[in-house]
Amino acid sequence: MKLLVLRFSALGDVMMGVPLVDALARRYPDLEITVLSRQPFEAPFRFLPANVRFWGVDLNLYKGVAGLNRLYREIRRQGFTHVADLHDVLRTRYLRTRCRLDGLRVRVIDKGRADKRRLTRRRHKVMRQLPTSFERYRQVFTDLGFPFDPTFRSLFADKRPDITALRALTGDKGGDKWIAVAPFAKHAGKIYPLDHMQQVVDGLRRHAGYKVFVFGGGGREKAVAEAWRQAFPEIVSVIGQLTMEQELQLLAHMDVTLTMDSANMHMAALAGSPVVSVWGATHPFAGFLGWHLPEDSVLQADLPCRPCSVFGQKPCFRGDYACLHALSPETVIEKIHALLS
């Protein structure tokens, strides 16, 4: 049997599929699993069992119906018997429909859109924990006839990866506590104010025995990290210097990772790093907290307007992002001290 798993974006959502695909592959070693997604998202899948293959594509080459038909023909040539749609967007709906018409067994994720609207609406919110994406993904595989227990611990559960090749950047760890700070996210509603975060970085780097590493991606984020490094020369910015695979390996050596509700949170969780995550417009109730992260790893303000968004992309109707400004740098630093001690 050959299973095709569809999930094109976003990076964090693709990463949330990693623990389930890993556990599924170990439970069914004779099942050939192919994950079809965007090429840049491949790194975490390289650490999964041998019966998992990552099929990375550039979706710009498959635009419109003609492009999707071409992609579908490539899918059919590979002889898949089952299709798991973990995305449920226009592209995957078209592909899965054609697969179903050709006799493949197909199941699709229930995203719980109505429940998420009730959770994030402005008034009369229904505040309750919704099924996580992990639970929703697992249900798709179960509905396809592949039940399993979610046994995943981390990408490096057996042994921390060798990062000797990164020593010129990281230095020797010795007895230091290594702290990863990933202060960025795709949407403003998820980003802790950068002036606040600079105070956090300053407070952490002053502490004897702490070494701070800044993670991120893109030119603007690199510029912010470089400005911090010039102000605080002892911190290390890894932005633009490592592949995603190397970032995962380095995160496995962190004593704590400070993140937003972002892909970096999921990367750290997959690598097995303890995590402290800051949440603003979004909320863990929507089901996107990282793999096996405890509730007390979350920092969030108790405001009646929260959450106002599932993904953090909606403008703040108050106009001040009080949900993020309400968390003082001292609160964040104290949380990290408590975890490390």
List the helices and strands and how they pair.
Layout: E1 2-6, H1 11-16, H2 18-27, E2 32-38, E3 52-57, H3 64-77, E4 82-85, H4 90-101, E5 105-108, H5 113-120, H6 133-143, H7 167-170, E6 177-182, H8 194-206, E7 210-214, H9 219-231, E8 236-237, H10 244-251, E9 256-260, H11 263-271, E10 275-279, E11 298-300, H12 322-325, H13 329-340
Helix pairs in contact: 3-4, 8-13, 10-11
How is this structure best described in words?
The protein has about 350 residues and is α/β, with parallel strands linked by helices. The chain has 2 domains: about 1-145, Glycogen Phosphorylase B (Rossmann fold, 3-Layer(aba) Sandwich), CATH 3.40.50.2000; about 165-340, 3-Layer(aba) Sandwich (Rossmann fold). It contains 13 helices and 11 strands. The protein has helices at about 10-15, 20-25, 65-75, 90-100, 115-120, 135-145, 165-170, 195-205, 220-230, 245-250, 265-270, 320-325, 330-340, and strands at about 1-5, 30-40, 50-55, 80-85, 105-110, 175-180, 210-215, 235, 255-260, 275-280, 300. The strands form 2 sheets. It has a 6-stranded parallel beta sheet with strand order 8-7-6-9-10-11, with helices on both faces. A 5-stranded parallel beta sheet has the order 3-2-1-4-5, sandwiched between helices. Helix 8 links the parallel strand 6 and strand 7. Helix 10 packs across helix 11. The longest helix is centred in the N-terminal third of the chain and has 14 residues, at about 65-75. It is globular and about 60 Å long.
